[in-house]
Design goal:
The chain is of the alpha/beta class and 200 residues long. The protein is built from 3 helices and 19 strands.
Length: 200
């Protein structure tokens, strides 16, 4: 009986509907209103809960796909995010072109933001929950294992994993495939144990 009462209370509570409006507002400013600002190539797809910020400074190349719950946040004033053609971002990827300073004596959230462009070449695959920080360039054909944090440039065709991400091989190299498999199972230094993830 208590559970029916709880359901009735939930469905008749003004707070339930106000919270629903708050969620709708969030998806409006973080997704729906950003779409008209995006520079999108042909056949670009992304999940309906991808979060964009300052989308007028985001370019998505032809055929790119962005998985659910991913976040692409360009800088407030200058930091751009540019993805080449056929990039594949698994769920939960975070790409942010701005960062806070860390000067002592000033709370982090009050520090001046540092904005630097992020560029991904063509055919880049970022596994689930990869984080790419400001100022990074990832060369064409790169594969980055799940859970990696990319803080430095990665050369074209490389396979990278770990925190911070480091090159563990190159595409087409049999030993690189084995290294990536080890990284995915936590056998490489700094690796995160999580599945690679990809397009559903």
């Amino acid at each position: 009986m208590g559970s029916i009462t709880d359901v009735v209370r939930s469905l008749t509570s003004v707070r339930t509907y106000l919270h629903g409006l708050r969620i709708a507002h969030f998806y409006s400013y973080s997704h729906a209103r950003q779409l008209s600002r995006l520079d999108r190539g042909d056949n670009v797809t992304f999940a309906p809960n991808v979060s964009f910020r300052n989308a007028e400074r985001i370019r998505l190349g032809d055929g790119t796909h962005i998985g659910e719950r991913s976040m692409l946040w360009a800088g407030n004033s200058t930091g751009r995010i540019v993805l080449g053609a056929k990039c594949l971002l698994a769920p939960g990827v975070v790409i942010t072109a701005s960062n806070y300073g860390i000067r002592p004596g000033i709370p982090v959230m009050d520090q001046e933001k540092i904005e630097r462009d992020i560029t991904l070449g063509d055919d880049v695959w970022l596994g689930a929950y990869v984080v790419v920080t400001s100022g990074v360039t990832i060369g064409s054909g790169c594969v980055v294992g799940a859970g990696a944090v990319v803080t430095r440039d990665l050369p074209a065709g490389s396979i990278a994993g770990g925190v911070p991400a480091r090159v563990i091989g190159h595409r087409g190299d049999d030993s690189a495939d084995a290294a990536l498999a080890r990284a995915e199972h936590g056998e490489e230094a700094g690796a995160v144990i999580t599945p690679m993830g990809g397009r559903p």
